[in-house]
Amino acid sequence: MVTGDRPRILVTGYGGFLGAAICRKLLEEGFRVRGLSRGSYPKMTQLGVEAIQGDITDRAVCERAFGDVVGVVHTAALAGVWGKAKKYEEVNVLGTQQVLETAKRAGCRAMVYTSSPSVTFGGMAQEGIDESVPYPKRWLCHYPRTKAIAERMVLDANQDGGMQTCALRPHLIWGAGDPHLIPRLIERCKQGRLARIGSGDQKIDTVHVDLAADAHWLALKNLMSEEPRCGGKPYFITDGAPIACWDWITMILNHAGLSPPRRRIPTGIAYGVGAMLEWYYGVAGRQDEPPMTRFVALQLGLPHYFSIQAAGRDFGYHPRIDRIGMLEQMKPWLQQLRGL
After folding, report:
1. Helices marked H in the chain — which ranges?
2. Would residue 143 show up in a list of annotated catalytic residues for this protein?
């Protein structure tokens, strides 16, 4: 039960898929939770989240949000694989800078930044890599580039005796209520626009939204402890059980009552199509996302799975996952997405 003398945690982007799960986890742990977002989320306020509506790039809004806050989980970001550089820089870089600077002025003890494994992706296969892998020299879209800039900014702000910071890199967040990944898979399958890129046997990592929320809570708790171990470090966050890409997609589609398509496209061809579409959309000045991009082609066609040993060692993240059981629980929602 939340009491007035319990610490208050701020969650930016609290109405998003991950942000909402983090809020629920913090409330379960007995913390007071304040949410900051541009949108309004009545269901979250009904759960007990104190809502502040505004933009993270607005200094006055951030100053109001950080009053009496001891820790912050910064999930707010502009995601996606297409769009103008300026928009990504405004939200992901300048917005994070505003959150970071306000947190420092407010005397905040800890900040967990939600990053992405894509900050390490330069177009090559990633098999069991750990956090020692550097940022790439080239970027395939503005999202990972700006997330990497923001991540470095947050990690560099870690101070012994001052605010402790770390960055978590959850990969392919999924679960009931997912507004992006699973609905897109099901819709494309229904439209006959889904194809297997590459062999489909390449291993990938995923992370259930509840496990990702647990990881954020565990990292925040560690940062606020007397002996923080994760200050100034990034961490990959996954289910801890890599799976063949097409096996995972097939499981989702089957639980939604759909059959996966047999059509295959070699990774190289998908990459070439993505490059041409990016060129055309850029020349035409189109704002909508192309049906294929270089980044998406390589993310679908190459293996990308990660070591989470550091997260287990430093703040006790040891996930247990039963994908089949969770998909069974999600079945009514998946079939609703299909339109049954």
Report:
1. 17-28, 42-47, 59-65, 85-88, 96-105, 142-156, 181-190, 209-223, 245-255, 267-284, 294-301, 309-315, 323-338
2. yes
195 within domain boundaries: no
CATH code of the domain covering residue 59: 3.40.50.720
Query: What size, in residues, is the chain?
Result: 340
Q: Which amino acid is at 187?
A: E
Antiparallel, parallel or unpaired: β 126-129 and 304-306: parallel
Q: What 3-state class would DSSP assign to 112?
A: strand
Torsion angle defined by CA atoms of residues 219, 168, 109 and 47, in that order, rounded to the nearest 10 degrees: -70
pLDDT in tens, 183-216: 999 999 998 888 899 888 999 999 999 999 999 9
Sheet holding 32-37, edge to edge: 50-53, 32-37, 8-12, 71-74, 110-114, 164-170, 233-237
Q: Which of 41, 88, 113, 143 is catalytic?
A: 143
Q: Is residue 196 part of a domain?
A: no
pLDDT in tens, 311-332: 999 999 999 999 999 999 999 9
The answer to whether residue 312 sits within a structural domain is: yes
